[in-house]
Write a structure and sequence with these properties.
By secondary structure, this protein is mostly helical. The chain has 17 helices and no strands.
C-alpha cells in the first residue's frame, strides 16, 4: 500500500459513489446465512460473536478493548461478553479461512457463476486492487491489518478483498471524523439514524448492544448540544455536523480514488455497481433493517 496518486482529478462525489458501489460486495457476507452457519460450525454461534470474530480476525487474537476501539459504536459490555472468548472456539486464522470461504459461496449465490467467471469481474478486481494500493496504513488499524493478508487468486475473491480494504480504509477515517466532531460511538449512531440513512434505531440498538435507557441518555446529550430537537430529529446544527463528518470522511478517504483516476473510478463504479445491483436484487440485505423504522 502506498500514498501515491495520479494527476487526474477525482471529485469527492465520484469517489463516494464508487465506494457505495463496491462496499456492499464486502458487507453482504455479514447478512448471509452462510456466515452464521459456517461460524456456528466452528463453535461461534452467537450473531454478535460471529460478527466480532469475522471482522476482527485480521487483527489477531485481540481483546475487547481493541475491538471496541476499532469498531467504535458497539457497547463495550457486549463486546466483552464475546471477546476474547471467541478465540478459544476458533483461532483468527481459522476465522479468516472461514470468511473467505463464505465470501466465495455468497458471491456465487448472489451474482451467479457466469458473473463470477466474467471478464468484467476480473477487470473490476484489477481496478479495485489498484485503488486499494493507495490506501494508507497510518492510523487505520482495520485497513492495515487486512492489507497484511494475501490477495486471493480468484478474481471474485480478489474483488472482495479489495472491497474489504476500501471499506475499512473509509471506516477508519470515518472514526477519526466522528471523534473530531465530539461524537462518541452511541451519539454517532443516534445522529446517523436520525438522518434516515443506514439501519433503523431498533436494529442498531439490538445489534450494537445499547439499551433504550442508554439511547435516551445519548439523545438528551445531543439535545443539550443543540444537535437534536425535542422529537429526536436533527436540528440545523445537527444536519450541518453530520454533513461536516461526511465531508471530512471523504477527504480522508480520497487517496485510493485519486490514485485510480477519473476513468478508472467511473469504470469501477459501473462494474461494481452492476454486481451490487444484482446482489441487492437477489436479497443480499434485509430491507426491514434499513431506514428510520
Amino acid at each position: 500500500m502506498t500514498s501515491a496518486s495520479t494527476t487526474a482529478a477525482v471529485s469527492s462525489r465520484a469517489a463516494r459513489r464508487c465506494h457505495n458501489a463496491i462496499n456492499p460486495l464486502h458487507s453482504a457476507i455479514y447478512f448471509a446465512p452462510e456466515y452464521g452457519t459456517e461460524l456456528a460450525a466452528a463453535g461461534i454461534g452467537h450473531p454478535s460473536a460471529a460478527y466480532f470474530a469475522g471482522r476482527a480476525a485480521p487483527l489477531g487474537a485481540v481483546g475487547p478493548g481493541t475491538v471496541t476501539a476499532t469498531f467504535y459504536n458497539f457497547n463495550h459490555d457486549l463486546v466483552a461478553r464475546h471477546v476474547p472468548a471467541v478465540w478459544s472456539e476458533a483461532t483468527p486464522q481459522d476465522v479468516l479461512r472461514i470468511r473467505l470461504r463464505v465470501a466465495d459461496a455468497v458471491l456465487r449465490r448472489l451474482l451467479g457463476e457466469e458473473a463470477v467467471a466474467s471478464a468484467g469481474m476480473a477487470e473490476a478486481a484489477g481496478l479495485a486492487l489498484r485503488a486499494a494500493g493507495a490506501c494508507s496504513r497510518e492510523a487505520r488499524p482495520l485497513c492495515a491489518a487486512n492489507a497484511d493478508l494475501p490477495v486471493p487468486d480468484e478474481p471474485h475473491l480478489a474483488l472482495w478483498h479489495a472491497a474489504t480494504l476500501l471499506r475499512e480504509h473509509r471506516g477508519d477515517g470515518h472514526l477519526m471524523a466522528l471523534a473530531a466532531a465530539g461524537l462518541d460511538g452511541l451519539e454517532a449512531l443516534v445522529t446517523h439514524t436520525a438522518t434516515g440513512k443506514g439501519f433503523t434505531p431498533a436494529f442498531v440498538q439490538a445489534s450494537r448492544g445499547w439499551t433504550a435507557g442508554q439511547w435516551a441518555e445519548a439523545r438528551d446529550r445531543l439535545r443539550a448540544r443543540g444537535l437534536l430537537d425535542a422529537d429526536g430529529e436533527l436540528t440545523e446544527d445537527g444536519v450541518r455536523l453530520r454533513r461536516d463528518v461526511e465531508e471530512a470522511t471523504d477527504r480522508l478517504d480520497h487517496a485510493p480514488y485519486e490514485h485510480l483516476g477519473q476513468a478508472g473510478v467511473e469504470r469501477l463504479t459501473e462494474l461494481a455497481g452492476a454486481f451490487t445491483a444484482t446482489a441487492l436484487g437477489n436479497g443480499a440485505f434485509p430491507v426491514e433493517h434499513f431506514g428510520k423504522g
